[in-house]
Amino acid sequence: MLIKLKNVNFTYMSNTPLAQRALENVSLSISAGEFVGLIGPTGSGKSTLVQHLNGLLEPLEGEVLIEGKKIGGEISPLLVRQKIGLVFQFPESQLFEETVFKDIAFGLRNLGYPDDEIEGRVRKALAMVGLDYFEFKDRSPFTLSGGEMRRVAIAGVLAMNPSCLVLDEPTSGLDSIGTREIISHLERLNREEGLTIILISHDMDEVAHLASRVIVMNEGKIEFDDSPRRVFSQKSDLLKIGLDIPQFTSLLFMLKEGGLDVPLALFELNEVKNAIVSALERRFS
Ligand SMILES: Nc1ncnc2c1ncn2[C@@H]1O[C@H](COP(=O)(O)OP(=O)(O)OP(=O)(O)O)[C@@H](O)[C@H]1O
Ligand SMILES: [Mg+2]
């Protein structure tokens, strides 16, 4: 098992009057190769949870295991940070070097990798996010578009060769082209390179399209942990905690309420179209 959390509890500023409980008895296991969507209303503990996965935050109670080893005890935080690459929200705000190359190479230099190894890794990382090495390596990160900046920030994490990529709202604030670029690369990294991905998102269509498993957080607890089909069928529970459902699911719910016999949790245009056509054929045959 790549990642395992056992009864993790976490409170910010514990033992002070400002104490704020953020995770309550969270247990979960994530295997290599999964694509997990992590959703939940604002303040539900998503960012707190992912910061536990790479040792940035330590549980107050419970434990976090990476490949069976306890963070802090059997595996060092440095190694954990390399294995579990975390891309923060608005990661472009952390770009600071004068060229794209230096920015992506930063972590590798700190670890003392030789120059030729660094160059190879930077090239590969740029290719993984679809940016041409020669076109981008000498540019200042600050002259890039928002979507390009974000891809450079993701490349900086990928250059460390992580087993798992964790992204905290990687498409928020991007236009639809920037969003599509990022999404298509995440899809490919998971499918073709077998990279484990954990994606926090407020966009239910994005999660339904990408994830093979959806974890729903609410008030620091896991509410659901299941396939997208099963999770997004829980329309009233999701609406109650302030979440949406994917647009196609919404449409299918309306058709069903209007008396058409369609399945509810389909997320791809073609599947939805075929389901509606066959329901209409059944009805009028
Ligand atoms: N640094 C902090 N100090 C004190 N409390 C915090 C801190 N960071 C988060 N919290 C609190 O912990 C709880 C969980 O916050 P967290 O940021 O994990 O939620 P989230 O699900 O990521 O929300 P969002 O969707 O808005 O990013 C919230 O009640 C929040 O106010
Ligand atoms: Mg957050």
Features:
285 residues, alpha/beta, Rossmann fold, 12 helices, 10 strands, binds adenosine-5'-triphosphate, binds magnesium ion
How would you explain this protein's 3D organization?
A hairpin with a 2-residue loop joins strand 9 (213-218) and strand 10. The chain has a six-stranded mixed β-sheet, with helices on both faces. A four-stranded antiparallel β-sheet has the order 2-1-4-5, covered by helices on one side. Helix 3 packs across helix 4 (115-128), helix 3 (100-110) runs parallel beside helix 6 and helix 4 (115-128) packs across helix 6. It folds into two domains: 3-245, Rossmann fold (3-Layer(aba) Sandwich); 246-285, no CATH class. The protein is built from twelve helices and ten strands. With 285 residues, it is of the alpha/beta class. It starts with a strand and ends with a helix. The longest helix is centred in the middle third of the chain and has 18 residues, at 176-193. The mean pLDDT is 95. The structure holds adenosine-5'-triphosphate and magnesium ion. Magnesium ion binds at residues 46-47, 168. The site of adenosine-5'-triphosphate has 12 residues, from strand 2 and helix 1.
